[in-house]
Amino acid sequence: MTKENLILLADAYKYSHHKLYIPGTEYIYSYLESRGGKFEETVFYGLQYLLMEYLQGVVITKEKIDEAESELKEVFGRNDVFDRTKFEYIIEKHGGRLPVRIKAVPEGTVTATHNVLMTIENTDPKCFWLTNFLETLLMQVWYPCTVATMSREIKKVVNKYYNETASAASFAGIDFVLNDFGFRGASSVESAGWGGSAHLINFAGSDTIIASTFAKRYYKAPAAPGLSIPATEHSIMTLLGEPGEKEIFKHVLDAFPTGTIACVSDSYNIIRACEEYWGTELKEQILKREGTLVIRPDSGDAVQTLLRIFEVLTEKFGYTVNEKGYKVLPPQVRVIQGDGISYSSIPGIYEALKNAGISAENLVLGMGGALLQRVNRDTQEYALKCAHAVVNGKDINVQKNPLELDANGNTRVSFKKSKSGKQVLVKQDGKFVTMPESQAVGLKDELVTVFENGEIKTSYTFNDIKNRAQI
Predict the structure, then answer these.
(1) In the prediction, which pLDDT does 2 show?
(2) CA–CA distance, 217 with 11 (Å, rounded to integer)
(3) Residues in the annotated binding site for diphosphate
(4) Are 5 and 63 in contact (CB under 8 A)?
(5) What ranges do the domains of the chain cover?
(6) What are residue 433's DSSP bridge partners?
(7) Binding residue numbers
């Protein structure tokens, strides 16, 4: 269990809400959705980690209440905001377990945006304030969902160019085309594990080992789903200076005479490295290897650099032409581009190779900060909003419906308009559709109870999730 105090894992303004809800409030029901954003589809992933690490079991104790009381007196500078009796009640009545029910779409499910993905409601009327108190923490599921979504969208791009230019035999390697290089660019170890495991739903290549740890620890992955290979860095390649670069290249080949190995080759002159060292003086050793040398450029314009590299490599090593009419290097030589890779740059790279007659199967990618860090909650416009309440025994459908002013001062309906009433997710004609519970009589709700009163009720394995997210 995490060392963090759950009572302190909320935005400060939440602690005043128990007083601000209208007297007589008994139940608050809220839902999560992607309100749109960069991609038309979204992958739901990562809630199980939050449930296991932060919410399950006894999470409210006297010691934690004491700590929170002291901290929040400092935060607010007054004694009438935090009410410890609200949390003491959870200990007395529920043994420190959270009286809430969370339903969610099975993890790995891909839906169009604007669909309900998760709902939460209190199960004890005296804890009406708890539903949205938990919003701050639960809302962070936007992060693994967004990484999983973007990674999957990149896989769509990769599939497109493989379908257009790659040989049928090469399709088995698609899972290793996009490799996660993002650990050092992530904001925390938790981010790297959570977001890195989200990427592994779609691809198997990763240097972020903590991502596999998360998949095994929280999702019962039977073995590390993120795989990697030996590879050099510039500190290795530059130890003998520019005159000694070729010697180090040969040492790399000697150190791993079989299997796949990657070697960064732009320390001084990437064209010379490909033309003279790899493509001439070390050519025979490379072609005799039982394995693949993956040459890595790491600077310059990605498109122009790759076009020039492939021009040199096809000239030096030769090539075959696959059944779709595109050039393929010998299996002992491939290229990895790990600099400047993002969702926006990848299509241009593959399109340039296609126009040059180079098959997509010659290239793999490494993606760092753009994969795990260059995302935010607004990438897919995630929001958690109240849609239903019970006040003094009366059911109330709740809705936010702002009237906005645009840049010209004209009024418009906001995309932030929320759903009204309890929601269900149903399948119609093979597609997910969200509708009010009152309109879904006889239809199966795809949302599953995953957490209730401190217990995880449904859990998913990593293999389950990968299967659901398949393109």
Answers:
(1) 53
(2) 28
(3) 184, 234, 296
(4) no
(5) 6-145+377-469, 151-373
(6) 426
(7) 184, 207, 234, 296-298, 338-339, 369, 377
Of 56, 39, 60, the C-alpha closest to 48 is 56
Contact call for residues 165 and 354 (beta carbons, < 8 A): yes
C-alpha distance from residue 415 to each of 383, 384, 404 (Å):
11, 14, 9
Give residue 169's region: left, alpha or beta (phi > 0; psi -120 to 50): alpha
Asked: is 151-373 a CATH 3.20.20.70 domain? The reply is yes
For residue 1, pLDDT over 70 is answered with no
Give pTM, 2 decimals: 0.96
Report the distance separating Cα 298 and Cα 279, nearest Å.
18
The size of the chain, in residues, is: 471
Whether 365 and 337 have beta carbons less than 8 Å apart is answered as: yes
3-state secondary structure the chain: CCCCCHHHCCCHHHHHHHHHCCCCEEEEEEEEEECCCCCCEEECCCHHHHHHHHHCCCCCCHHHHHHHHHHHHHHHCCCCCCCHHHHHHHHHHHCCCCCEEEEECCCCCEEECCCEEEEEEECCHHHCCHHHHCHHHHHHHHHHHHHHHHHHHHHHHHHHHHHHHCCHHHHHHHHHCEEECCHHHCCCHHHHHHHHHHHCCCCCEECCHHHHHHHHHHHCCCCCCCECCCECCHHHHCCCCHHHHHHHHHHHHHHCCECCEEEECCCCCHHHHHHHHHHHHCHHHHHHCECCEEEECCCCCHHHHHHHHHHHHHHHHCCEECCCCCEECCCCEEEEECCCCCCCCHHHHHHHHHHCCECHHHEEEEECHHHHCCCCHHHCCEEEEEEEEEECCEEEECCCCCEEECCCCCEEECCCCCCCCCEEEEEECCEEEEEEHHHCCCCCCCCEEEEECCEECCCCCHHHHHHHHCC
CATH number of 6-145+377-469: 3.20.140.10
Stretch among 8-17, 82-91, 153-162, 412-421 having the lowest mean pLDDT? 412-421
Confidence grade of residue 3 (pLDDT, cut at 50, 70, 90): confident
Annotated binding site for beta-nicotinamide D-ribonucleotide: 207, 296-298, 338-339, 369, 377
Token reading at 189: 């170890």
Whether 107 has a pLDDT exceeding 90, the answer reads yes
Q: Are the folds of 6-145+377-469 and 151-373 the same?
A: no
Which pLDDT score, from 0 to 100, does residue 414 have?
Answer: 85
